[in-house]
Amino acid sequence: MKRIAESTVRRLSLYLSFLEQRERDRVNTISSDELAHLGGTTSAQVRKDLSLFGSFGKRGLGYSIPELSGKLREILGLEKQWRVCIVGAGKIGAALARYRGFAERGFVIAAVYDSDPAKLGKKWESQAIRDVANLAKDALSERFDIAVVATPPESAAEVVKVIVEAGIKAILNFAPTQLTVPSDVTVRAVNMAIELEGLSFALTNRAR
Amino acid sequence: MKRIAESTVRRLSLYLSFLEQRERDRVNTISSDELAHLGGTTSAQVRKDLSLFGSFGKRGLGYSIPELSGKLREILGLEKQWRVCIVGAGKIGAALARYRGFAERGFVIAAVYDSDPAKLGKKWESQAIRDVANLAKDALSERFDIAVVATPPESAAEVVKVIVEAGIKAILNFAPTQLTVPSDVTVRAVNMAIELEGLSFALTNRAR
DNA sequence: TTGGCCTTGTGAAATTCTTCACAAGGTACA
DNA sequence: TGTACCTTGTGAAGAATTTCACAAGGCCAA
Questions:
Q1: How many domains in chain A?
Q2: What is the pTM assigned to this prediction?
Q3: Which of A89, A179, B102, B151 is the most buried (most CB within 10 A)?
Q4: Minimal CA–CA distance to A72: which of A101, A97, A35?
Q5: Residues in a beta bridge with A187
Q6: Contact B205 A6 (CB under 8 A)
Q7: For A186, which of B190, B197, B199 is closest by C-beta distance?
């Protein structure tokens, strides 16, 4: 299959969230134009994105919402349950552990780690916080699919080393640090500083 | 000036963070090639990005780190102090309020809002949590530049309405909702579901 | 069954973004 | 001062992404 751009995948996620909303409202059909408006893009873009994976629509009618959302879930790999471990039991880790949208999309928080002795063993949303020193060992038996790095920046590199050695192939990084990983490991980074600086740039350079 | 792509601005932020790191290590000069390696891009990309704003390097030598980081701060608008208000005093709001990198980049948390009566008035990193009903009024006198939306998704649209009416032109959205704003308001969204789904896609479709 | 209407799927064009490749300019050292 | 060596800045080429525009297919009502 052709390589799919990251921007395309992001849009697919967006489309899916709109479809789920409409699903709840008991609407059965949606056109590429409607989807485009919801997502701030164009109908041609929507159709192009979807056509990379097949022909899901009916000419003259649009897309069946249950069918298309099923297809999108399949494309995005959301039919499977993904086992996620969170490393770093700070505020960000807490926000993630509590985030509802998670479980309903098939992301199971399988473990939470920290290195602070004061936190170890504390219960957190039904998870006891474990010692990060056990991560490598646990990974052998618990098969984590995704690791979330929510540590301070200075520990991130070290933690990532452990994660990679444990054979985990996907990392969501919240630490404001550039990670180095082998090419078979996928990293997505969420960096608040970069987002804020983007806003700062926009405010500074906007037309007056 | 030519329109600058969002991807370019993101890279500029990254470059700046590398420069600051090097600055702390008392290194004086850096080549586009080094910068490229740190950021996972190419030297040509680095030079192209910078050349959009001027000629900051010395041929044969590279870039002066103090000079370039100064220029980048200027380009990104980080010389000014930006006044930020956070709406939503949950875990994400808390993580933001405590994030150190913030103040040192000139982002001042000027106020924190919530609508939960149980939280109002509580002190939070030297900020009393205020009632979101006062946001519009406060904005008149306190001139917030940036609003961070960290509410549950169902309140986001309403909160954004208030923010826009208050004349705030930049929004950082953590709610998993597509926001609708006038074209003179810049929005950056951080959506954990989209990032995780991107990882799910990568895991599902990776070469075996 | 026919005709009008609507929306998809998709080549081709346009645009945007990235990489190439090299002249120009500057350093450093003999 | 001259020469060898670097690294920038940048047109031009190339790649990727988005938009255009329209034929093809399907619904619906008469």
A1: 2
A2: 0.94
A3: B151
A4: A35
A5: A171
A6: no
A7: B199
Sorted by sequence, the CB contacts under 8 Å of residue A119 that are 6+ apart come out as A89, A129
Domain membership of residue B163 as a residue range:
82-194
Give the gap in angstroms from C-alpha A58 to the nearest C-alpha of chain B: 25
Residues 63-82 of A with CB under 7 A from strand C: 63
Give the chain B residue nearest A184 (alpha carbons). Answer: B206
Q: What residue spans of chain A are helical by DSSP H? A: 6-24, 32-39, 43-51, 65-76, 91-98, 101-104, 135-142, 153-165, 192-205
Burial class (CB in 10 A: 0-12, 13-18, 19+), A135: buried
| Cα–Cα distance measured from residue B200 to residue A63, given in angstroms and rounded to the nearest whole number | 24
Calculate mean pLDDT across residues A58-77.
96
User: Which two three-digit tokens encode residue A204?
Assistant: 């500074």
Note down pLDDT in tens along chain B; length 208 residues. Answer: 679 999 999 999 999 999 999 988 777 999 999 999 999 999 999 999 999 999 999 999 999 999 999 999 999 999 999 999 999 999 889 888 888 778 888 999 999 999 999 999 988 888 899 999 999 999 999 999 999 999 999 999 999 999 999 999 999 999 999 999 999 999 999 999 999 999 999 999 985 4
From CA B182, how far away is CA A105, in angstroms rounded? 31
Domain shared by A53 and A129, yes or no: no
Q: How many CB pairs under 8 A join A and B?
A: 193
Q: Answer whether residue B206 is part of any domain.
A: no
Distance CA B193, CA B199 (A): 10
For residue B24, the distance in angstroms to the closest alpha carbon of chain A comes to 14
